[in-house]
Amino acid sequence: MAHHQDGLIRTVADRDFGDTNLPPNGIKFRGFTGETLLDALLDAAEIYKNGRRRLYQDKNGNPRKLRYAELSFNAFRTDHRWLRLLHDYAQMYALIKEVPLPQHLHAVQLVCEIQFAGDNTPAEAILRKGLAVSEGVRSLIGAADCEIASVSDGAIETLKKLCQAEDMTYYSDLDRLLREVSRSSRSQARQVAETCLAILRTRLSPD
Fold first, then answer.
1. Confidence band (pLDDT; 50, 70, 90) for 207?
2. Fewer beta carbons within 10 Å, N or C terminal of the chain?
3. pTM, full prediction
4. Whole-Å CA distances, 49 to 65, 76, 95
């Protein structure tokens, strides 16, 4: 349960409250009063016990259905890290100040983190930057076309390192994204994707 303010607006979603940015993963309320908090608590109890809302009705006037299992599942799948919100805030302030952020910023950060820190678990390095693995891979693939050679080369080498890592828990994300890019009209991106897919096949093929 969360009061509708600040970062909680972006991390807790209540579909009946009007949130559409995330799958429903909690209960929202307005107003810093004991009454509004009590209403939210009773609503939560009704969802848990009977799978329906106490405060919201459907078009027929019946309590809206909402399963506790759905809320719980979505809550565990939601990325609540404040680092993710920090990226959005940085972008917002850059727009306000009319100062563009450096091109391929996330990719450059990942290149430094993964290539030069000697991290044996690249996926964890991506997560530490506040990104999902799929987002990190997309950033690196995008940077492979960068006109700045050091950025392009670094992104390509980092993608290769991801494909060679012992930690393959992110294999499905990596494979799916690389296959998408392998069909791209951009020759550089397509070539990088095909090279990385070949590394993946070698890495995962049985001896």
1. low
2. C
3. 0.59
4. 12, 20, 46
